[in-house]
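hiii so um. not sure if this is the right channel but i have a protein structure encoded as tokens and i wanna go backwards to a sequence. like what aa goes where. can anyone help
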């Protein structure tokens, strides 16, 4: 299973604003694997707790209130679960054999140097993979 925290609109379609698969491309580009001109990157975790922890990590050391669990739009954060067994081709960047085959070192996957991580993501996208898993938080990044 994959888990994602997102700002929910109850009647939104699955891929519309407020739906669990909606990714606003205009807000992408700063992430390790984001390339909004080529694809949308949806970050998800293999563990629900990890997805929630990432969504609230900015509030570390502060009281977590209901207001902090809402976006500026007023939409509440929700946790969605997705089956990952239906995905055809996911590149596992935690697999040493995969890194070796690509001529990559673990540091190239985990670096904060966006030129390096974007090049890796671009190559994976051009191969036709539906996404990748691995790196610093072992998350799946899927194209949309």
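sure thing!! here u go:
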């Amino acid at each position: 299973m994959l888990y994602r925290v997102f700002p929910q609109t109850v009647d939104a379609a699955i891929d519309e604003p407020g739906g669990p698969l909606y990714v606003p491309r205009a807000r992408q580009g700063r992430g390790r694997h984001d390339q909004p001109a080529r694809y949308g990157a949806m970050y998800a975790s293999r563990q629900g707790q990890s997805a929630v922890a990432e969504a609230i990590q900015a509030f570390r050391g502060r009281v977590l209130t209901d207001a902090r669990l809402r976006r500026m739009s007023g939409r509440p954060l929700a946790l969605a679960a997705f089956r990952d067994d239906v995905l055809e081709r996911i590149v596992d960047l935690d697999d040493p054999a995969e890194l070796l085959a690509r001529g990559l070192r673990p540091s190239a996957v985990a670096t904060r140097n966006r030129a390096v991580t974007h090049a890796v993501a671009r190559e994976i996208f051009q191969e036709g993979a539906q996404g990748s898993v691995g790196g610093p938080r072992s998350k799946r990044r899927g194209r949309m």
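oh and The first strand starts at residue 2 and ends at 7.
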